[in-house]
Specification:
With 286 residues, the chain is mainly alpha-helical. 67% of the residues lie in helices and 5% in strands. The protein has ten helices and four strands, in the order H-E-E-H-H-H-E-E-H-H-H-H-H-H. The chain has helices spanning 2-13, 30-44, 50-68, 71-89, 120-133, 140-167, 180-211, 218-232, 239-259, 262-279, and strands at 20-21, 27-28, 100-105, 114-117. The strands form two sheets. Strands 1-2 form a two-stranded antiparallel sheet. Helix 1 packs parallel to helix 5 (120-133) and helix 7 (180-211) runs antiparallel to helix 10 (262-279). The protein starts with a helix and ends in a 7-residue tail after the last helix.
Length: 286
């Protein structure tokens, strides 16, 4: 089981590598080979069933065709990929046996306990969207520019989100570095954040911005819509959680708007979650 999720995380990390040329006409992206290994390992470890593999294959095909076909056909396949990605992220497709990593852990005396799963379905959704449908940095120069543009947004996002959360009594300062920290951050990055940003920014915001490009403030409207949808997706956590997720979503959406690269949104999202977990009540006050 450990091998399954390690391979999935490595596949996500290698989505930025150039394809390997196996023959004059055949290129193989490294992430694809590693992801195939993760699926085989998942079958052997009973994390995946054949039904889950079929669902992943259908999603992979829809995303590939959305990226490879002409605009009119691409829209159809893009909608199919979006629906399948949403179903995977919400754990609505059968055949996935996501293991519990952290169970009912109370990090502070006045915090509610939390449970964290290793979500293969959500992680795989993020990988495929990232690889096929997201704009990524492709050179050292792009990475340098992206990082210069991103760090001030990340700083403002951390202050705004956690300042607001403290002001409304949702969290309070509570510095901690425990045994669960590295595990939480690893799983949160690879199996949650990448998927959420690939879906809300790389797919939804990007396509909305293209559709609204003829309007003066169309791209900004697309950013606002992606933030509102991101907030609405957290409705199960209650009104305060929706408010905070919306504010955070505005920061993630703005980072993507400024850079037009998915890495910026991922970095800002990870910065907020890291500071929240280490420096404040997690997940929130009881």
């Amino acid at each position: 089981m450990l091998l399954t999720f390690a391979l999935l995380a490595i596949a996500i990390a290698t989505a930025w590598l150039k394809p390997l040329r196996l023959t004059d006409r055949f290129l193989l992206p490294p992430w694809m080979a590693i992801a195939a290994g993760a699926v085989v390992s998942g079958l052997a470890a009973a994390v995946l069933s054949p039904v889950a593999v079929l669902a992943l294959a259908m999603f992979f095909l829809a995303a590939y065709l959305a990226a490879a076909t002409e605009r009119k056909t691409s829209l159809l396949f893009g909608m199919a990929a979006a629906l399948l990605a949403l179903a995977l992220a919400l754990h609505r497709l059968p055949g996935f046996n996501n293991p519990i990593l952290i169970s009912q852990l109370r990090l502070s005396a006045d915090s509610v306990p939390f449970t964290q799963y290793a979500n293969f379905d959500k992680g795989a959704a993020g990988l495929v969207l990232l690889a096929f449908l997201c704009r990524r940095a492709s050179s050292a120069a792009e990475w340098r520019k992206l990082l210069r543009q991103t760090w001030p947004i990340a700083l403002v996002a951390v202050i705004a989100v956690l300042g607001l959360a403290s002001a409304i009594g949702y969290v309070k300062p509570d510095f901690k570095l425990g045994q669960a920290t590295a595990l939480f951050l690893f799983a949160n990055l690879f199996f949650t954040i990448v998927a959420e940003e690939a879906f809300f920014r790389g797919l939804l915001q990007d396509r909305l911005a293209l559709s609204l490009a003829r309007f003066r403030h169309g791209p900004l409207l697309a950013a606002a819509c992606s933030a509102l949808l991101f907030g609405a997706a957290h409705v199960a956590g209650g009104g305060a959680y929706v408010l905070l997720a919306t504010v955070a979503g505005l920061a993630y959406a703005y980072a993507y708007y400024v850079t037009q690269r998915i890495e910026a949104a991922i970095i800002v999202h990870f910065a907020v979650n890291t500071v929240h977990f280490i420096g404040f009540t997690y997940p929130h006050l009881n």
